[in-house]
Design goal:
The chain is of the alpha/beta class. The chain has a domain of 70 residues: Nucleotidyltransferase, domain 5, CATH 3.30.420.270. The protein is elongated and about 90 Å long.
Length: 136
């Protein structure tokens, strides 16, 4: 049972119907034309000009080094674990907390680095970073 001649419907439409696309673009254009003036609620102000530069204070940094044997060095000075705890507590009491930069030897056991980090956390230091050398 055929509904019509098949010869008339065999042609494939080679062109895209542009009418729906143009309709959508015109609607979007109208929406943007209406909403752009509504979105601009700018207040014109004549602001003063400042001539001074803001002061950039860098926070103090503490270099904590751990050598291969597990000895601690506070800014180059050797100290024991008890002295390290006291120094960290004293540094944490400052009004602006210093940054703690941990430099560990490649051969040091992780236990010594973890102990230093735990002591820094107990003292209340929050800015802890590790210093490494990039691969060349």
């Amino acid at each position: 049972m055929a509904f019509g001649t098949q010869d008339d419907t065999d042609e494939v439409m080679n062109e895209i119907n542009m009418t729906p696309l143009v309709d959508v673009m015109l609607v979007l254009l109208i929406i943007f034309i209406i909403t752009v003036p509504v979105m601009q609620h700018a207040v014109n102000l004549d602001l003063p000009h400042a001539t001074s530069q803001p002061e950039q204070m860098r926070p103090q940094t503490i270099q904590l080094s751990v050598d291969a044997q597990g000895a601690y060095f506070w800014n180059g000075a050797a100290l024991s674990l008890n002295q390290l705890s006291a120094q960290l507590a004293q540094a944490a009491q400052q009004s602006e907390q210093p940054e703690l930069h941990i430099r560990a030897d490649r051969a040091v056991r992780y236990e010594f680095v973890a102990t230093a980090m735990v002591e820094a956390q107990r003292a209340g230091l929050h800015k802890i970073s590790f210093v490494t050398t990039p691969k060349s």
